[in-house]
Amino acid sequence: MSEAILPAPVHKWLAGPLPAGVEDSLERLRRAEDVAYVAVLPDVHLADDVCVGVALATNRLIYPAAVGSDIGCGMAAIRFDADADLLAIEEAAGAVLGGLTRCVPALKHPSATAPSELPSTLGDAPLSHPRLEKLKSRDGRLQLGTLGRGNHFLEFQADEQEQLWLMVHSGSRSMGQAISAHHSTAGKADKRRLIAIDSESSEGQAYLSDVAWAIAYAQANRLAIIAAVSRLMQSLFGVVSTADSLIQCHHNHVRQEIHFGRRYWVHRKGALSAGTDVPGLIPGSMGTVSFHVSGRGHPPALASSSHGAGRCMSRRDAMQKITRRELERELSGVWFDHRRIDALRDEAPSAYKDIGAVMRAQRDLTRIERRLRPLLSYKGM
Questions:
Q1: Active-site residues: which are they?
Q2: CATH code for 10-378?
Q3: Taking residues 99-113, what's their average pLDDT?
Q4: 55-86 burial, b if ≥16 CB within 10 A, otherwise e?
Q5: What is the residue extent of each domain of the chain?
Q6: Whole-model pTM?
Q7: What's the pLDDT tens digit per position in 239-291?
Q8: Which pLDDT does position 149 carry in this prediction?
């Protein structure tokens, strides 16, 4: 008679009561085949199949849903050789917002201005299926250096010394989604309907190779955005970004790591790697502060932390409950495109958890290195 499989232990760092449905989702996850540990971060909220704000460890199986469809999604930040008061007047902020709509598209570059080919590190690296290769040469090329929709953003911020910083949140765009969708059909569903792929099978090796490509693409995407914004700021104001200040991290990935003296496949979906002294970026929302952090390598959290504030209200609820006037009040003091105010209501600060409470809940997981307040927020629509 086979021995019953015990549910995996779950460790939680919470900023408040769990949102509706999250407990059931976590219970399904901890009972999924081969799951050894689960860490729940304070920005946790409900998402398809596996919650955002979760890290988990497996011995052999890979769960694409525990990585997410925007593989490699993450953050980048860089300091400009300028004071924050550069954006203090409306004319300067308007010039920046107008320039951003041209140099950082939300969906794709127009064919006339799109790069002619991908960088060789991406173009020469093969994907696992001809369909993905075709998408790479078309969508991958047209979307490199674009922001994306939803909670993806570009924000100018001021640190405690009133120095000007840029923070970018974007990912692998439609390529990550295509890779995730393709491999999810190759996996098998366990009895609780989570799709699993054996890491040692040919299918598993193909998925992991494509994940590595998507992570590299997402990083190149963020660097392309930073380069475009740096050119804009130099042309408008004659200021330059400082290369040695660059910070990068990503929060949707799977990779092998050592924890508790054993090697595991660690999945992070909306969760930062917070190994000892590893730098990270944790944004708040359009109207609240963000943080530069370093990890504490806390073992029970699988050396992870939150990737942001986390939603406390669904997009549908936010669009129904948050008015234009409320959004304008919440964004007082932050420059943004008022023509898009209706479309931005689901990204209102009140649709997100209190970032202060999130950071307090994970004091064991991260060390705050820098606190930044928003000056100008740009989102793709």
A1: 307
A2: 3.90.1860.10
A3: 88
A4: bbbbeebbbbbbbbbbbbbbbbbbbbebebeb
A5: 10-378
A6: 0.95
A7: 999 999 999 999 999 999 999 999 999 999 999 999 999 999 999 999 999 99
A8: 86
